[in-house]
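hiii, so i know i said id send this last week but things got crazy w the move. better late than never?? heres the sequnce for the chain we talked about at the cafe, plus the structure i predicted for it. fair warning i was half asleep when i ran it
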Amino acid sequence: MPPSTVTPALSSAEERKKRRLALIGGSLGNLVEWYDWFVYASFAIYFADSFFPGDNPTTQLMNTAGIFAVGFLMRPVGGWILGRAADRHGRKSALTLTVTMMSVAALLIAVAPTYGQAGYFGALVLLLARLLQGLSIGGEYAASATYLTEASARNRRGLGSSFQYVSMTCGQLLGLGILITMQHTLTTDQLESWGWRIPFLLGALFAVVVFWLRRRLQETDAFREEASAEAHDTTARGSLKALWQYRRQAGLVMALTLGGTVAYYTYTTYLTKYLVGSAGMEKTTATLVSFTALALFAVLQPFAGMLSDRVGRRPLLITFAVGCTVGTYPIMTALGSASSYWSALGLSLLALVIVTGYTSINAAVKAELFPTRVRALGVALPYAIANALFGGTAEYVALWFKNSGRESMFFWYVSGCALVSLVTYVLMPDTRNAALSRAEAEDRAADQATDRPADRAAAEPAR
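okay and structure toks below
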């Protein structure tokens, strides 16, 4: 066989292997990052009274939810600092830094003294740890979204980026799995006194392993291309001045995130508390409902991502927004009176199927809106701001409405946020055809020159 026919095959095989390793490495690191982030919410029902004394469980949960929300306030700062670092120094370096910060934060929570041991100093340590986690996760989302999208083949970016929420959800499942195991091996008193510290210790150890893993990742071709092209001038990359040139795209990121982030946190982190506090379920049953629903939710993500690679991003986003706007009130009302595991599971799954229209592809959509030199910052900062204002406060807003005796108002709040995003989805362009690099734009031009219809929708000219 002539060498010319062998080399392309070998090159193609090596390229596929490289993409698989990038997908696995990026996803596993993201899993641990979000495990550390979500395990706080999962175990809050057990450690709330350790830091905030009182007789009102809802008030205690509101205090811990407030600290959970405060962590989101650091996400814009983390998005700015680490998004800038990812655009200037590479996606790999930013991903390594975020997991280091998350490990330190998890360790701080694990050793934080309780109110009985040090008064409100323990709550202060909890607050500082959540601020550090917020700083880390603010950069993690953008770095991983950008990395997974750039590392995917141009006609499989929806599929590749869907693994961000697969790994995010698996991180939450890992936390819930540990919670379920501990619920069946420890008593409630043991969980409330010391057992809740175990998952945070494990999170710190997991992060150390991921640090080693991420050190072995390869940089994306898109970033290397950009770095090589602008080796003489790096000041423009990842700067706020450069981002300002794409302020319309940044505004789109905030608007399209609004409904999705509120819905996601409503049906994931808040769901267990809602089933316990409003439906009156046992903690173990409510946790099992969340675990099963999230496991199936994770499986759905790649299928929706593949669908978006065929039909475009907007149809999925619009389907999500319509379903969330119309369906939130009846679904949440029914969940509030769910009397069995199966009824709660069915309703939870219905909600998460709707949310999949957003979660499976939002990373790709945001990354496809920006050029390489400002892509990580463009994804990070506006997304983090939207999350700080709406995603991080969703649980607190829900508990506030509940505590004031107007719980159903929260359902309308979620629907209203989805409606805003629906208008955005209808008006925005579909991003599936965007080119993430000059090489992709050149490939598209070559495909068109050779009249290959199957590849004509591959990309728009690189910006």
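btw Residues 3-51 form the longest helix (49 residues). thought thatd interest u
miss u guys!!
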